[in-house]
Write a structure and sequence with these properties.
With about 160 residues, the protein is an alpha+beta fold. The protein folds into 2 domains: about 70 residues, GMP Synthetase, Chain A, domain 3; about 60 residues, Ribosome maturation factor RimP, C-terminal domain (SH3 type barrels, Roll). The protein contains 3 helices and 10 strands; from the N terminus they run H-E-E-H-E-H-E-E-E-E-E-E-E. It has a 5-stranded antiparallel beta sheet with strand order 7-6-5-4-8. It has a 3-stranded mixed beta sheet with strand order 1-2-3, covered by helices on one side. Strand 4 and strand 5 form a beta hairpin. The longest helix is centred in the middle third of the chain and has 16 residues. The termini are far apart.
Length: about 160
Amino acid sequence: MAKRTELEGRLAATAAEHGFELVLLEIGGAQRNPLVRVYLDHPDGVTIERIAEANRWVGELFDGLPEFERGYALEVSSPGLDRPLVKLADFARFAGEDAKLSLSSPEEGRSRVTGTLRGTDGEDVLLQRDGEEIRVPYRSIRSAHLQPTIDFAKEGVTRDGL
């Protein structure tokens, strides 16, 4: 299989050509018929029509790769309200939002940290938790997601600040 970073690079470039941002690429399951999940975002929002359009060009890209000639299952979707935070820049972009981080090695005895994103400082992610600012080294973050705010006084689910 092509190197994962090469595949992500090709997919990110193709997404950008179509006005999308590649948020995350996941490949898992059986090697013979893997499950390929592609999470995309769009500046004007992700609609069913945009996902259907993206499904076509993402499928064309994967269909042309020899490592997927035996078949694959493709899922193309929006990143959702609990958007994964993947790149260091994501933590700065969503400053002010609540997030949950899972760490590869415990920091101060915790393997999970929840708080309000305050941005980044060098290679550290800054979080506000219980009135205290904490620093988490980006390299120690295994996974991170926004924590959506559900406001039952209003219709629907919102993320504060967006």
